[in-house]
Design goal:
CATH architecture of chain B: Up-down Bundle
Distance between the termini of chain B: 72 Å
CATH class of chain B: Mainly Alpha
Strand content of chain B: under 5%
Structural class of chain A: alpha+beta
Shape of chain A: elongated
Distance between the termini of chain A: 75 Å
Largest interface: A-B, 54 and 51 residues
CATH topology of chain B: Cytochrome Bc1 Complex, Chain C
Number of domains of chain B: 1
Radius of gyration of chain B: 23 Å
Strand content of chain A: 5-15%
Number of strands of chain A: 11
Order of helices and strands of chain B: HHEHHHHHHHEHHHHH
Oligomer: heterodimer
Strand order of the largest sheet of chain A: 1-11-8-9-10
Largest sheet of chain B: 2 strands, antiparallel
Structural class of chain B: mainly alpha
Helix content of chain A: 40-55%
Radius of gyration of chain A: 38 Å
Helix content of chain B: 55-70%
CATH superfamily of chain B: Cytochrome Bc1 Complex, Chain C
Number of helices of chain A: 13
Largest sheet of chain A: 5 strands, antiparallel
Number of helices of chain B: 14
Strand order of the largest sheet of chain B: 1-2
Order of helices and strands of chain A: HHHHHHHHHHHHEEEEEEEEEEHE
Chain lengths: ~425, ~375
């Protein structure tokens, strides 16, 4: 494992970088003499383009997966994306395999090209076929490689680059995947010694130049225009067909299972119940002069009970230090969010929207808070279990009535229309 | 020779800026050319905005087949569309991603046309229409944000509408009433509720599209009549034909943009950027959850609003909004180099505040 996945890997990377840089300097001459041979090719469309198109996108995908491992993971967590990437990856691998095979056949079929190929080139092409072939084999036999590679091959390569090699990430992979990786390192190792380094250049500079007479600009423009229009029409037909099929399914709607229908109807019912509750609150405020908030025994010093005032604005009911109820507006004086109902150790409640802390006894915000105005207090009325008013407090804190603590704790607290302008 | 009357001057002004005599096949198709220079890429930004707008219109129409604009059912209809209807999530995702792309490219279009001095005489009216379209697009974003009727949607809308109340406290005399009336007109009641949803829905799907169609029609027609602006200080040496060369290139760019959008919509649900409590159905009687924010394209005003005194932002925004309309006259004599510097500064501000706004806020305020 150490030899294949660490030593070979480092040697391959080193040789590839140094060798390629050296060869690129010498390539100008090599490409100039070698590339014209290719210009004889009539099959550029069927070999070079599929090969380059397939391999460049596949290599780019490998690279993106390596660089952006976590976004990639996020992507392939979506089943649609996973299917799409698997499908595209396989299609492109096959495309490049076909293109590469055609290139090989052409090289062996043409005596002039065959004469230019050395032993190292033959080995390299064999390795390349091996790498692409094992890649396809892995994709078919062990599906979802776009997902599982993020926790195997990607951390392995990252560990190499971080100079903390971890061959254990890949040592348990199926043999096709291992062969693919080892083949990849061998390919990198050999590439700088081969004349096929140019294969990894874009096909554009190698376009035929000598065989056909140069096109007139107008012919070129016309041809490009026709190609463009054909592409647009073809693409539109394909896209339109697929889009229409998807749209029909969308418009036809889902075939729900019984459980799904039940869940949906329950959710809708809940929503309607909430709406009924809200409408009931409105009606109650229109009809009643007193609205029950809570029994005093339910109130606490630290967690407020939400209710709405006569204007349907949120408010909180606490138990004050003196054992009487304490009502405070819960509508933040900054931008109107509803403040939280839990009192912290500093006797403050928090508006989470823009982080304003308000003292619950004074209503005053802390100086750092974006809210500058205090939360107003609300008035209340206490009634005993028989419904007799035993005490009340106005929004500005004036209290009427002196009930005993026992009377208070058994009483119910209300908001009243006569104090409703106070909040 | 008698000096021209005011009416004649007005007529001449509009004839120069809206030369309807060029409304012919020859002028619009056969003879039309596009300058080629190092800033030519800027010409494609407007087309991309149009592409995303078209996608918005088409996907928006199909979303209407399932969306129910009532406070009781809006959220559940979105839930149904997203989780049960075949391709529903995809269509909603495209609509949401495309909205962001549209605004992103609209800002880029605005900055590039500013840098290219595309507002130069006789294109002042084209610019004015463009600024109106910019505001309309932001209004589209604002009104569309409420429609899912979830926690973040309703609470963020509440915050914006409440800021109108705050604005009124800084305005003098009778003007102070204006933001309150606007708020009431939009909100339709004491608090955000069904009347607000009905209003926002009507504005989003009827009023704004009609306005947009009219102004966009004017904008596009004037671009066609006046041709592409020069774009660089020294006139371009090369030109290409609008049809077919430029159109084909434009369509190629559209194709790439569409596929990027397609893959994003397929792979990443737009709502995945929000934690779940914020996408829960709105419940009027509960507290506001933490993390209420507008969409990213409002961060450029949201974070300054968080950090600076409200009157400063109010005054600054008013000046900038008026200034946008006056740019053709304010910068009439400016060089493209100066305008480019201005546009780059604007772009940097937008990028920094959008990407690092929260970090800056934390740095200044401390804590979250």
């Amino acid at each position: 494992m150490l030899v294949l996945y660490v030593i070979l890997a480092y040697i391959a990377i080193f040789v590839f970088i140094v060798g390629t840089l050296y060869r690129l300097r010498a390539m100008r001459h090599a490409a100039a003499t070698f590339a014209p041979q290719l210009r004889e090719a009539r099959l550029l469309l069927w070999e070079s383009i599929p090969w380059h198109l397939g391999i460049i996108i596949i290599l780019l995908a490998h690279l993106i997966e390596l660089i952006a491992r976590y976004p990639w993971q996020l992507l392939v967590d979506r089943p649609f994306a996973l299917w799409l990437f698997e499908g595209l990856g396989l299609a492109l691998s096959v495309t490049s395999f076909v293109g590469l095979s055609a290139l090989l056949i052409q090289r062996f079929a043409s005596p002039r090209l065959r004469a230019m190929i050395g032993p190292i080139d033959i080995i390299l092409l064999g390795v390349l076929l091996w790498v692409v072939g094992t890649g396809i084999g892995t994709a078919i036999a062990y599906r979802w490689g776009t997902a599982w590679s993020t926790s195997t091959t990607v951390p392995y390569v990252i560990s190499l680059l971080a100079l903390h090699p971890r061959p254990d990430y890949v040592s348990a992979l199926p043999w096709t995947a291992q062969a693919h990786i080892v083949g990849g390192w061998i390919f990198l190792l050999l590439l700088p010694f081969s004349r096929f380094l140019y294969l990894f250049l874009l096909p554009l500079p190698l376009a035929p130049a000598g065989a056909a007479p140069p096109l007139e600009p107008t012919d070129l423009a016309r041809r490009n225009t026709l190609r463009g229009i054909a592409g647009i029409v073809g693409g539109s037909v394909l896209l339109g067909g697929a889009g229409l099929a998807g749209l029909l399914r969308y418009l036809a709607g889902p075939n729900l299972t019984r459980e799904q229908s039940v869940t949906l109807d329950q959710e809708r019912l809940l929503s309607l119940e909430q709406a009924t509750q809200e409408r009931d609150l409105i009606l109650q405020r229109e009809r009643e002069d007193y609205i029950l908030v809570a029994a005093v025994s339910e109130l606490t010093l630290t967690v407020g009970k939400y209710f709405t005032d006569y204007q349907l604005r949120p408010a909180l009911a606490f138990l004050g230090r003196d054992g009487f109820p304490m009502f405070i507006s819960a509508k933040c004086t900054h931008l109107g969010c509803t403040v939280g109902n839990t009192v912290n150790a500093k006797e403050q409640i928090l508006c989470p929207c823009h982080i304003s802390y308000f003292n619950i006894y004074s209503g005053i915000p802390t100086p750092q808070s974006p809210a500058k105005l205090p939360l107003p207090h609300l008035g209340w009325v206490l009634r005993d279990p028989q419904g007799t008013e035993i005490a009340s407090q106005t929004p500005d804190g004036r209290r009427v009535g002196q009930p005993t603590p026992a009377q208070v704790s058994s009483a119910q607290v209300y908001i009243t229309r006569r104090f409703s302008g106070g909040a | 020779m008698p000096s021209p009357t005011a009416w004649e001057r007005i007529g001449r002004f509009f004839r120069e800026r809206f030369p309807v005599e060029k409304l012919s096949y020859d002028e619009l198709v056969r003879k039309k050319t596009v300058p080629i220079h190092r800033r030519s890429w800027g010409y494609y930004t407007g087309g991309l905005v149009l592409l995303f707008l078209l996608i918005q219109v088409v996907t928006g129409i199909f979303l209407l087949f399932y969306y129910e604009p009532t406070a009781t059912d809006a959220s559940s209809s979105i839930e149904y569309l997203t989780h049960y209807v075949p391709n529903g999530e995809f269509l909603r995702n495209i609509h949401a991603w495309s909205a962001s792309f549209m605004i992103g490219f609209l800002l880029l279009h605005f900055l590039t046309t500013l840098a290219m001095k595309s507002f130069e005489r006789p294109r002042e009216l084209t610019w004015l229409a463009g600024v109106l379209l910019l505001f309309l697009t932001f209004t589209f974003g604002f009104t569309g944000y409420l429609l899912p009727w979830n926690q973040i949607a309703v609470n963020a809308t509440k915050v914006v509408l409440q800021s109108l109340v705050q604005a009124s406290t800084f305005l003098p005399g009778g003007l102070a009433r204006l933001p309150l009336d606007v708020r009431l007109a939009l909100q339709g009641g004491e608090s955000v509720g069904q009347p607000t949803l009905s209003r926002f829905f009507a504005i989003h799907v009827v009023l704004l599209p009609v306005l947009l169609a009219i102004i966009l029609g004017f904008h596009l027609l004037s671009v066609q009549l006046l041709g592409m602006s020069q774009g660089v200080d020294t006139p371009a040496k090369r030109y290409e034909r609008f049809f077919p060369s430029y159109i084909l290139k434009d369509l190629s760019v559209w194709t790439v943009a569409f596929f990027v959008l397609f893959f994003l919509a397929l792979s990443i649900p737009f709502a995945s950027f929000l934690p779940y409590p914020l996408t829960e159905p709105f419940y009027a009687l509960g507290p506001t959850p933490a993390g209420i924010k507008p969409e990213w394209y409002f961060y450029f005003v949201y974070y300054p609003l968080e950090l600076l005194p409200f009157p400063v932002i109010l005054a600054g925004m008013t000046v900038i909004m008026i200034g946008l309309f006056l740019i053709p006259w304010m910068f009439r004599k400016s060089s493209r180099r100066a305008l480019t510097a201005l546009a780059v500064a604007g772009a940097l501000y937008l990028l920094i505040i959008t990407i690092f706004g929260h970090d800056i806020y934390q740095l200044v305020r401390g804590g979250s």
